[in-house]
Design goal:
globular, 394 residues, 2 domains, 18% strand, Aspartate Aminotransferase, domain 2, alpha/beta
Length: 394
């Protein structure tokens, strides 16, 4: 009997749906907006192919990082317009120069995100920067299949669960180079769409593009912005200033359930290279260079080592080798999955009671949470500074 992972563990990768020759499996949203496989058991012959390609039921071989670099693109535009350092863009450029195709996450017209395959270098603009939302990978599989049949190669950059699924479906072919992004979790598309529609209603304008780390405000500020069709920003707000979507994401409230049980949140990685922000940089040994817009690059395989060496020799990136222990100690996602908090449990209950109304579920948690954060911030200040603040507000 077919038994796919439960909601607590299914990543929504869709490998099972793609591999099923009888089309018994479709990917659908559940009542909470989470995309999961649905099986038509009446047409299933129990061949078990779906279970054999599932990266949760049949794990891939993982690799402990051999080296770690603090790195950034030497192209100033790429560096400042990327989430952290622009290494993904440099990897894409190198792949295109080598005649490869590239795979990345691109925002769609309805603000959903999906993995796309292309050989067009200008697509890197759509792939660039963080997208704090679930991205569909399963629509990509036919394109990769066609590419490989034509003897093509590709640089694939995605979340660890997506990389694992692609490796399972295409049996670790050497014609695909894998880069996994160290991930905290993904939020269902439905929540983002609700948030954008509320902003549109409040501002009386139509959204054309959203950004989760708008470069115009500095990617390190984590500013959520919304632009109209003319490229004008009509909404922008940081997490700490009260954007509900960013607050829910960065306070671990709104992820898919499986993200809290992620088997890929560990130091052993699924990609040839892993990319991340670099919290903790300089804690083990000094880092006497500029720290803004810096990527943590984990080199996990010989192929990964050769690729990074090539980028350095081409003067595409600035890179300084760092202790592996520094990267692991500074990034919790290299040690364990995101933890479920009291806010997460409260969010789940409110969503179920209020017909999956995202804003209604998050706002009271955010108001109380931000107030607490500000009070704690003030309490850490020297007494003389606190007295000065209190005096100024009397």
């Amino acid at each position: 009997m077919i038994s796919l992972p439960s909601k607590e563990h299914c990543t929504g990768c869709g490998a099972c749906a793609f591999i099923c020759s009888r089309n018994c499996i479709v990917m659908e949203e559940d009542s909470m907006g989470v995309i999961l496989p649905v099986i038509d058991s009446s047409n299933c012959v129990e061949c078990n192919r779906c279970m054999s390609v599932c990266p949760i039921l049949s794990a891939c071989k993982l690799h402990a990082p051999e080296k770690v670099f603090a790195a950034r693109s030497l192209d100033s535009f790429t560096e400042t317009h990327s989430a952290s350092g622009g290494l993904a863009s440099e990897l894409y450029r190198d792949a295109i120069r080598s005649g490869w195709s590239i795979v990345g996450a691109a925002q769609q017209d309805d603000f959903s995100v999906r993995l796309e395959l292309t050989n067009d270098l200008t697509a890197t603009e759509r792939f660039r920067n963080s997208k704090y939302i679930f991205s569909t990978a399963y629509k990509l599989y036919p394109d990769i299949q066609k590419l490989l049949k034509g003897k093509g190669k590709a640089m694939v950059i995605g979340l660890p669960c997506q990389i694992a699924a692609i490796r399972k479906v295409f049996r670790d072919t050497p014609d695909l180079f894998y880069v996994d992004i160290v991930c905290h979790g993904t939020t269902p598309h439905r929540y983002l769409l609700q948030h954008v529609r509320n902003i549109e209603k409040r501002e009386s304008k139509k959204a054309f593009e959203v950004s989760f780390r708008d470069p115009a405000f500095g990617t390190g500020t984590f500013t959520f912005s919304v632009k109209d069709k003319d490229g004008n920003t009509f909404y922008s707000k940081r997490t700490k200033d009260g954007d509900t979507y960013q607050y829910a994401y960065h306070r671990w409230i709104s992820y898919r359930e499986n993200c809290y049980h992620c088997p890929f949140a560990r130091k052993e990685r699924v990609g040839d290279i892993s990319l991340a922000d670099y919290p903790g940089l300089g804690r083990h040994i000094p880092f006497p260079y500029r720290r803004g817009n810096i990527s943590c690059v984990l080199v996990n395989t010989n192929r990964g080592a050769a690729m990074i060496k090539q980028l350095i020799q081409q003067n595409s990136v600035f890179a300084v080798e760092r202790p592996v222990e520094e990267a692991i100690a500074g990034n919790g996602q290299l040690r364990r999955p995101t933890s479920k908090t009291k806010k997460r449990f409260a969010f789940e209950k409110t969503m179920q009671r209020n017909a999956c109304d995202f804003e209604k579920a998050v706002r009271p948690l955010m108001v109380k949470g931000l107030l607490g954060e500000r009070i704690r911030g003030i309490s850490r200040l020297p007494l003389r500074v606190v007295r000065k603040i209190l005096k100024s507000v009397r």
